[in-house]
């Protein structure tokens, strides 16, 4: 088995009627690791801080801490609404920008895509097009200069630091070569991109703040700081933990040659996205995990959408392929070994 085959194995087995990933499709996918990447020789470009982002992130996290202090005196209804806003915005990232638009791991009907695009704006993590483009470049050039949140540069950089500095030129150069025609052809993705700022003001800040005020008389102040800022900061940090903690700590049962790891704490806080060794090994699996629904609200949501007829063609990797990969490149921590 050559290294290329190890990195880009043939996962194209069919199981239980699930959709398959054809070999021909695998070779053209832009979310599969490219191990031919060579770092450019010469001095590293200087890090250029973006002070606007530094200040905004300090303000956001200060506001979120203040929101946390208000929690003990807040009504149960407002806290339940905050949890719902967390779940909706998280699904806009996990089921939407990540599993649907970055990895095409299942197909979604128009009503579901509209819902996911709205939920995605509520999460305010860049528009779907930009998120999916950066995420594909992350998978293809993981832990290199071309990875936007290259975890080799440390926990802080992978977590939040990458949003506080100009991108490494390699990220942009490699990103420009990616195949993004599917995103460009998706009218909902392009519509969300066009009206992104307006949709964020409405869905990330105004709706979370106004609903509790209008329906049960909550103060606008609490509505702004708890379902608004605190919830936004929690979803951001849960997401960033996948880039930082799950690229550093945990077992590597599927591929010991890569940094992404199985991290249960991250899986819990990121509603199913912490099984990161599995996910980087089999990026097109709609469950992002071998274990289906375990610690994986996002998979349960996609299953429900399939049951309702709003989603279909969920891609899965067969047990046989998983086990052979575990034998070949795993670190020995997989339960079957
Ligand atoms: C946020 C995103 O938080 C989080 C993403 C996390 C991903 C996690 C993945 C993990 C797996 C999934 C798990 C989900 C778990 C969810 C759990 C939920 C509970 N290719 O960007 P610029 C071009 S966002 C090709 O300005 P700078 C670009 O088009 C938070 N081209 O770069 C542009 O061209 P043009 C809110 C690229 O100047 C030009 O380059 N947002 C690429 O270096 C310049 O682009 C923020 O905090 C590419 N990859 O600035 C900050 N990239 O001029 C938002 C760029 O022609 N971002 N280009 O249009 C910024 O302010 C800036 O991007 C910057 C870099 C300062 C970071
Ligand atoms: Zn990753
Ligand atoms: Zn991914």
TrEMBL record:
Domain of life from the UniProt record: Eukaryota
Subcellular location: Endoplasmic reticulum membrane
Gene Ontology molecular function terms on file: iron ion binding; palmitoyl-CoA 9-desaturase activity; stearoyl-CoA 9-desaturase activity
Entry keywords, A to Z: Endoplasmic reticulum, Fatty acid biosynthesis, Fatty acid metabolism, Iron, Lipid biosynthesis, Lipid metabolism, Membrane, Metal-binding, Oxidoreductase, Transmembrane, Transmembrane helix
Top EC class, one word: oxidoreductase
Membrane topology: Multi-pass membrane protein
Main location: endoplasmic reticulum
Cofactor names: Fe(2+)
Residues annotated as transmembrane: 49-69, 75-97, 195-215, 221-242
Catalytic activity: octadecanoyl-CoA + 2 Fe(II)-[cytochrome b5] + O2 + 2 H(+) = (9Z)-octadecenoyl-CoA + 2 Fe(III)-[cytochrome b5] + 2 H2O
Residue ranges annotated for the Fatty acid desaturase domain, each copy included: 81-283
EC number(s) given by UniProt: 1.14.19.1
Any one of the GO CC terms: endoplasmic reticulum membrane
GO biological process: monounsaturated fatty acid biosynthetic process; response to fatty acid; unsaturated fatty acid biosynthetic process
Chain residue ranges for the region called Disordered: 1-21
Domains (record comment): The histidine box domains are involved in binding the catalytic metal ions.
Annotated family: Belongs to the fatty acid desaturase type 1 family.
PANTHER family: ACYL-COA DESATURASE, STEAROYL-COA DESATURASE
Protein name (Swiss-Prot/TrEMBL): stearoyl-CoA 9-desaturase
Gene: SCD
């Amino acid at each position: 088995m050559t290294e290329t085959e190890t990195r880009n194995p043939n996962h194209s087995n069919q199981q239980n009627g699930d959709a398959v990933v054809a070999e021909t499709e695998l070779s053209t996918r832009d979310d599969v690791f490219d191990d031919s990447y060579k770092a450019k020789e010469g001095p590293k470009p200087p890090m250029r801080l973006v002070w606007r982002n530094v200040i905004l992130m300090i303000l956001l996290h200060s506001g979120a801490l203040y929101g946390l202090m208000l929690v003990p005196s807040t009504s149960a209804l407002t806290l339940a609404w905050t949890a719902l806003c967390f779940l909706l915005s998280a699904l806009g990232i996990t089921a939407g920008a990540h599993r649907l638009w970055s990895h095409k791991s299942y197909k979604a009907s128009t009503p579901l895509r509209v819902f996911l695009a709205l939920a995605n704006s509520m999460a305010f993590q860049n528009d779907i097009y930009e998120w999916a483009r950066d995420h594909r470049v992350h998978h293809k050039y993981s832990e290199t200069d071309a990875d936007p949140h290259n975890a080799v540069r440390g926990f802080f950089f992978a977590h939040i630091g990458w949003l506080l500095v100009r991108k490494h030129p390699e990220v942009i150069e490699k990103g420009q070569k990616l195949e993004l025609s599917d995103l460009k052809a998706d009218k909902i993705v392009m519509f969300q991109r066009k009206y992104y700022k307006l949709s964020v003001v409405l869905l990330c800040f105004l709706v979370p703040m106004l609903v509790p005020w209008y329906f049960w008389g909550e103060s606008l102040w609490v509505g702004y700081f708890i379902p608004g800022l605190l919830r936004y900061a929690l979803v951001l940090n849960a997401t960033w933990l996948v880039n930082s903690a799950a690229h550093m700590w945990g077992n590597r049962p599927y591929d010991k040659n890569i940094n992404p790891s199985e991290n249960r704490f991250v899986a819990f806080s990121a509603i199913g996205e912490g099984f990161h060794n599995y996910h980087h090994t089999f990026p097109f699996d709609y469950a992002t995990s071998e274990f289906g629904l375990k610690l994986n609200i996002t998979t349960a949501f996609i299953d429900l959408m399939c049951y309702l007829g709003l989603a279909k063609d969920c891609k899965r990797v067969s047990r046989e392929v998983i086990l052979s990969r575990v034998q070949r490149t795993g670190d020995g921590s997989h339960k079957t070994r």
